[in-house]
Amino acid sequence: xxxxxxxxxxxxxxxxxxxxxxxxxxxxxxxxxxxxxxxxxxxxxxxxxxxxxxxxxxxxxxxxxxxxxxxxxxxxxxxxxxxxxxxxxxxxxxxxxxxxxxxxxxxxxxxxxxxxxxxxxxxxxxxxxxxxxxxxxxxxxxxxxxxxxxxx
Amino acid sequence: xxxxxxxxxxxxxxxxxxxxxxxxxxxxxxxxxxxxxxxxxxxxxxxxxxxxxxxxxxxxxxxxxxxxxxxxxxxxxxxxxxxxxxxxxxxxxxxxxxxxxxxxxxxxxxxxxxxxxxxxxxxxxxxxxxxxxxxxxxxxxxxxxxxxxxxxxxxxxxxxxxxxxxxxxxxxxxxxxxxxxxxxxxxxxxxxxxxxxxxxxxxxxxxxxxxxxxxxxxxxxxxxxxxxxxxxxxxxxxxxxxxxxxxxxxxxxxxxxxxxxxxxxxxxxxxxxxxxxxxxxxxxxxxxxxxxxxxxxxxxxxxxxxxxxxxxxxxxxxxxxxxxxxxxxxxxxxxxxxxxxxxxxxxxxxxxxxxxxxxxxxxxxxxxxxxxxxxxxxxxxxxxxxxxxxxxxxxxxxxxxxxxxxxxxxxxxxxxxxxxxxxxxxxxxxxxxxxxxxxxxxxxxxxxxxxxxxxxxxxxxxxxxxxxxxxxxxxxxxxxxxxxxxxxxxxxxxxxxxxxxxxxxxxxxxxxxxxxxxxxxxxxxxxxxxxxxxxxxxxxxxxxxxxxxxxxxxxxxxxxxxxxxxxxxxxxxxxxxxxxxxxxxxxxxxxxxxxxxxxxxxxxxxxxxxxxxxxxxxxxxxxxxxxxxxxxxxxxxxxxxxxxxxxxxxxxxxxxxxxxxxxxxxxxxxxxxxxxxxxxxxxxxxxxxxxxxxxxxxxxxxxxxxxxxxxxxxxxxxxxxxxxxxxxxxxxxxxxxxxxxxxxxxxxxxxxxxxxxxxxxxxxxxxxxxxxxxxxxxxxxxxxxxxxxxxxxx
Lengths: 152, 794
Description:
Mean pLDDT of chain A: 91
CATH superfamily of the largest domain in chain B: Aldehyde oxidase/xanthine dehydrogenase, molybdopterin binding domain
Number of strands of chain B: 30
CATH topology of the largest domain in chain B: Aldehyde Oxidoreductase, domain 4
Strand order of the largest sheet of chain A: 2-1-3
Radius of gyration of chain B: 28 Å
Strand content of chain B: 25-35%
CATH class of the largest domain in chain B: Alpha Beta
CATH superfamily of the largest domain in chain A: [2Fe-2S]-binding domain
Shape of chain B: globular
Number of strands of chain A: 3
Largest sheet of chain A: 3 strands, antiparallel
CATH architecture of the largest domain in chain B: 2-Layer Sandwich
Number of helices of chain A: 6
Radius of gyration of chain A: 15 Å
Oligomer: heterodimer
Distance between the termini of chain B: 63 Å
Largest interface: A-B, 54 and 56 residues
Strand order of the largest sheet of chain B: 3-6-1-13-10-11-12
Order of helices and strands of chain A: HEEEHHHHH
Number of domains of chain A: 2
């Protein structure tokens, strides 16, 4: 499984596994720019593809410590400010689902946001602050064109 | 000027780790050379184990061990009774607890009968399929009423029946209340709860360091300290040889407080095999191996005067405890006590019977039986109001306990074994605020008639509840100012997303005059703090929060004493702010806390007799009785007569949990609780067939609400501080979830009023589009009963 390969072979444990049958969305990552469930893919299917996990979202300068970390992605920053996470287990999946959504919908309505969120399950937040975070992230991304997009 | 952090919506300090994908959950622990466990589970709900042939599996490459109960030595014994029955006169309680692996008889689907240890989970699962388990199936029972029949299949052969417990509590004179009543409402009410379904399943990882003779266990538990005690006792180790770490945990909601057999087996295997061992539950197993909550059937009566005043309530109910009852009577006691709610109920007579069934074990899940009690009293009040021709909100208004009545001694023993006592509150204010915010009067008088005239099925409802929270016995905390000036805090409770890293930091920061960002909190690591019980019963902020407060206060005293000497100024002239202690009005006369910490821990010279080195203190907080939070929820919702979907149009919550530490975190707790309540009320259902096979054991069938199912929630907070603790806080973790079922039943009934046959009542939860359809079309041929399913709307 791609999720197992990332987590256990590469040590990229930011991608979480919640149901292993493609419903909860916790394992969502970007495959050639599209949000996919990594629990429904074999690693070998992704040979030659561009795979992005939550660890790549903020980016981090190689070899430097926490003090010089790249700032959070606007989406991550919005999640923090709007309290869009509680236990945080589903969070990487939400973030990675929302990156392509916001690229394609830079100014989404609340209804579109809820529709976009509905592919992932969260048991803690009741989704309300997630909606607020996406709204806020969309605003930030519109205001800062060219700022770290998800895939950089 | 000292800054106050309590009461501020400070963004959470733990979030950055979670957002960067760097927080460590149990399955993220990297263990070199780890072996992996897969359990072999019973496919039958009831059966006799004839034989288990492990030989084929044991021969497979990469397999290190295949074990059954026979191989477990002293671990092959029933687990502990985690919560003994409370001291109530005449109580009957039969404790039956599961062994780590079943021997001879299996009592629910998914009960573990064997385990495989292999080089990888893949190999372990392959080998699991080669374990041949020969079980002779026997008849199984799940229906509560059927389970008590004389000829019912018995869950425990050594008991005369499936009766697990019986407890009666009463006060006042019900018979007299009944005689004096103008109206007695009688109802059979069924409330079914569900699976807590945290996004992270359970898991355990263990390493035995043979040279250091140290066992380290990472566990998705809400109670790391009791787990450490149990592991040490069972494996014959000193408690100081066992370190249990509950790292970041992906939601708990109750069932992770249970102590499961796998929490013993994995550490034992690590010691026995001399290799790190890990077991991570998969989603399918979690529907069987993790505890859940299910149904109660209440036969309830309420006696009232013509003016709507309650004279008394009598309740007899059955409670499904599942195949075993390791958590004692916590859930049904909560139901029994919470039923009284915000109301003045002079006479109360309640008796429950816990029933063993061939279903997974029931232990507390967010609300922990309180939903069931609230559902009963709120439904009785709604129906009494209808019969008496009184408005449903008005009848509540007439029965509320008044603020001058506190403390209210209820004369009942609560789950913490003390008398249920309401410490403080203002219930009329809650109700009036909720009614006002939702616009109750206007909606009833103007909007609803117009909507109905336009053919729309829109209803309104309001319910209230009291939640006993913040119970003992105690928690503790250690606070230390480090030489860097930063503050280290350790407490024993685990954390599963409640924001303890932030709210406790705010509590400590207020006393020490530092920024909460300079407070580093460790929770749930027994090496850091090893006294305490755990995170449950909405008690973290109350019990651990006040322990943090007490320890910080003690450190503050030490700071003032030492700084007074160093600055040659009286203590009362000093203030702590911005990480320094300074003479008020003379900031040039100041010492940074870090420097003071170094002076308190000198490398040369003496620490004075009678004092302790460093700026550190450990304190405990143990409340004599719990605090009582309360709330009112109101909703306007529309029923689509075609799809039978219920769409909330507005959802208002007014809640009072005393002093608010962090309003943003509190709101998040409300939102999440309400979402779980909505799941319970309309989407989620553990459906068993007549063989007690779970029919909804995946997220394809057990439907958690999504972002399109949960409405925007309008929340408001009142603050009547608790007199029982210095911070004045009451617990809030479960509140959101508790009244939602009662609210859904009332709002749907109201929406459908005029469309239902006279006398049709909603008296069960969960609802679903199918149930709504059957309410609207009682004669439809699509009303075939779901075999083996109880609790239908009638």
